[in-house]
Write a structure and sequence with these properties.
Shape: globular
CATH superfamily: Response regulator
Strand order of the largest sheet: 2-1-3-4-5
Helix content: 25-40%
Number of strands: 5
Oligomer: single chain
Number of domains: 1
Number of helices: 5
């Protein structure tokens, strides 16, 4: 098995954060999960700003991104990330409760690598997160030279 990597998880629902962390932990899918509660904090993490200005170098293995968040929504975070040459190769999984076709289409058009609708049932949720985490945090290999360093 490959080395476990960090995951950036942007989610404003404390219950969804708790369930996702439990699922990732139960299946040992990440050394570190950085949780942020809105899109602005997600961008701060990716760009070494605010409370993240002194964080360790490197990009997360994957970004789990809720669609509807305060300050900056997930779609705007996705667009920003995918338009940045140093960040665009980070896989982004939209992990959202939205079943609206327009949200799915907008997400893929903006560069999402996957779109997972959060199941309401806890066991189904755990299984969905396990599958997402197993693929993106363990099996997927990022392209060489895709590590961002602070400016």
């Amino acid at each position: 098995m490959s080395e476990l990597k960090s995951i950036l998880f942007a989610e404003d629902s404390p219950l969804d954060v708790e369930m996702t962390l439990a699922a990732l932990s139960e299946h040992n899918l990440a050394n570190e999960v950085v949780v942020v509660c809105d899109g602005e904090e997600a961008l701060d993490y990716l760009y070494f700003r605010g409370r993240f200005k002194l964080r360790a170098n490197g990009n997360p293995a994957v970004v789990l991104l809720d669609l509807k968040m305060p300050k900056v929504d997930g779609l705007e975070v996705l667009r920003t990330l995918k338009s940045d040459e140093q960040l665009r190769n980070i896989p982004v999984v939209m992990l959202t409760s939205s079943r609206e076709e327009q949200d799915l289409v907008r997400s893929y058009n903006a560069g999402a690598n996957a779109y997972v609708v959060k199941p309401v049932d806890f066991q189904a949720f755990v299984e969905a997160v396990k599958q997402v985490g197993t693929f993106w945090a363990i099996h997927n290999q990022p392209p060489p030279g895709s590590i961002r360093k602070p400016v």
